[in-house]
Design brief:
There is one protein chain. The chain is α+β, with helices and mostly antiparallel strands. The protein has 3 domains: 152 residues, FAD/NAD(P)-binding domain, CATH 3.50.50; 155 residues, D-Amino Acid Oxidase, Chain A, domain 2 (2-Layer Sandwich); 84 residues, BFD-like [2Fe-2S]-binding domain (Arc Repressor Mutant, subunit A, Orthogonal Bundle). 30% of the residues lie in helices and 22% in strands. The chain has 12 helices and 22 strands. The strands form 5 sheets. Strands 1, 2, 9, 10, 11, 12, 19 and 20 form an 8-stranded mixed sheet that branches. Strands 13, 15, 16, 17 and 18 form a 5-stranded antiparallel sheet that branches. A 4-stranded mixed sheet has the order 6-7-5-14. It starts with a strand and ends in a 22-residue tail after the last helix.
Length: 477
């Protein structure tokens, strides 16, 4: 089949672009090299919806950050994605750093960020009682927030698929040939034809661009390491707590998640040993703790339930690259989407749609939806709501994940949703089964069993995250 548009990469930008385009009378394919959406930068970042005071005024980053942050509450509401407007503070530990705070304030005002305020140490301590006594002042940004990046991506993909977009997993693009009026993409899932290509391949956007002869940019893979703390440490921070940024990024932060955990990190290290290098290191994790304790001294590893690393796509230009390729009138690059890429993603999707409108006539479908029904979240229900749900379907009465109170019914829903879960991590990201204190130690085997049953395959075919990440190999008895 020949598609009007092929989107390469099902991260948050690719998924939101697919959602926007799914409202129109065009055929769209969303291609993902992994076994699920949100498997690159999207699955491992700080989950911050930035206010927009950090990006340099006049850049695409600044413009799309502020617009995307303003759009985020509406989009999350439409798709029933957890979002919280918790605000942020940038801490200063010296008068020199207060000069940086003033620069950020002036930049934020120029960028159109509303409600910014420079506060003294006492006011900062009122907002965040657990911050260091060494804080002399801060920038307070009430417009920033937190979101679940992979749930946002999952929801956008579900909406897109419901509207007719074809989601193709395990579909790594290996070559692209231009046939004049259309492209042929040679992929691990077979050849795919498309008139237009949107290149949203994250840290691999430069490689995909080079397949059409576009060598105009190079992606630097920048790794960041994190610790996730148990919910019992949720009291440590209510706002997102930053330190003054430097040329490598926004520094180590301490922030709540939308689910009540505390996240600390990231480091920032440009890596040359592969663009998908997500191994954590003792040195990196030690740096995370040390720098987080500078902001909030009570941070400690007794609360750590997991550590992880993610990579983001950095360009030497220090800005997003979102434009038609100079090599082709039918190829759009969406490159260098590092922080504040998540914040900007809703605006990036609209920006790409407007670019496409320059070349392709887009007429709205008679029937489409931009909304997603709220998934069952048993853990948030009242006793009477739970009883009514169990009476309707007993599967919701069987608790699989005790740490997070996740039921069998929720796991079944996640598997059978549009673009549903096909592996253990897919279930984990959709339901939180395995995200608690024991990290799947008790529920993992049951999740494997449910996946195998619902997908109609043998248990030894179930993987952790696709590929060769098998959990069970063969029977021993």
């Amino acid at each position: 089949m020949r598609y009007d548009v092929a989107i390469v990469g099902a991260g948050v930008c690719g998924a939101l672009i697919a959602r926007e385009l799914s409202a129109y009378n065009i055929s769209v394919a969303l291609l993902e090299r992994a076994n699920d959406v949100a498997m690159g930068t999207t699955k491992a970042n700080s989950a911050i919806v930035h206010g927009g005071f950090d990006a340099v005024t006049g850049t695409l980053k600044a413009k799309l950050n502020v617009k995307g942050t303003a759009l985020m509450p509406k989009i999350c509401g439409e798709m029933n994605v957890p979002y919280r407007n918790n605000g942020s503070v940038v801490l200063a530990f010296s008068e020199n750093e207060m000069e940086t705070i003033k620069t950020l304030y002036d930049r934020g005002i120029a960028n159109g960020v509303e409600g910014l305020e420079i506060i003294d140490g006492a006011r900062a301590k009122e907002l965040e009682p657990h911050i260091s006594d060494d804080v002399v002042g801060a920038l307070f940004c009430p417009s920033s927030g937190i979101v679940c990046p992979y749930e946002l991506t999952i929801a956008a993909t579900e909406v897109a698929v419901t509207n007719g977009v074809e989601f193709i997993r395990n579909c790594e693009v290996k070559s692209i040939s231009d046939n004049g009026g259309f492209y042929t993409l040679g992929t691990t899932a077979g050849d795919i034809e498309a008139t237009y290509i949107i290149n949203a391949a994250g840290t691999h956007t430069d490689e995909v661009a080079r397949m059409i002869g576009d060598s105009s940019f190079e992606v630097i893979s920048r790794k960041g390491e994190y610790y996730l703390l148990d919910k019992s440490y949720g009291y440590l921070a209510d706002h997102t707590v930053f330190q003054c940024p430097n040329y490598m990024g926004k520094g180590v932060l301490v922030t709540p998640s939308v689910d009540g955990n505390i996240l600390i990190g990231p480091t920032a290290l440009d890596v040359s040993d592969g663009k998908d290098s997500i191994e954590t290191t003792p040195e990196g994790l030690s740096t995370v703790v040390e720098r987080a304790q500078k902001s909030i001294p009570e941070v400690n590893l007794r609360g750590a339930i997991t550590s992880f690393a993610g990579v983001r796509a950095h360009l030497a230009s220090e800005d997003f690259l979102i434009d038609w390729s100079a090599q082709s009138e039918r190829f759009i690059n969406v490159a260098g989407i590092e922080s504040p890429g998540l914040s900007a993603a809703p605006a990036i999707a609209l920006y790409v749609k407007d670019l496409l409108k320059e070349k392709l006539e887009l007429s709205e479908k008679a029937n489409y939806t931009m909304t997603r029904k709220a998934p069952v979240r048993f853990r948030h229900m009242t006793k009477s709501e739970r009883e009514a749900l169990i009476k309707k379907n007993p599967a919701y009465g069987r608790i699989i994940c005790r740490c997070e109170t996740i039921t069998e019914g929720e796991i079944i829903d996640a598997i059978h949703a549009p673009a549903g879960a096909r592996d253990v991590d897919g279930v984990k990201r959709r339901t939180r089964a395995g995200m608690g204190r024991c990290q799947g130690g008790f529920c993992g085997s049951k999740v494997v069993e449910i996946l195998a049953r619902e997908l109609g395959v043998e248990m030894n075919e179930i993987t952790k995250f696709g590929g060769e990440s098998k959990i069970i190999y063969e029977r021993t008895k």
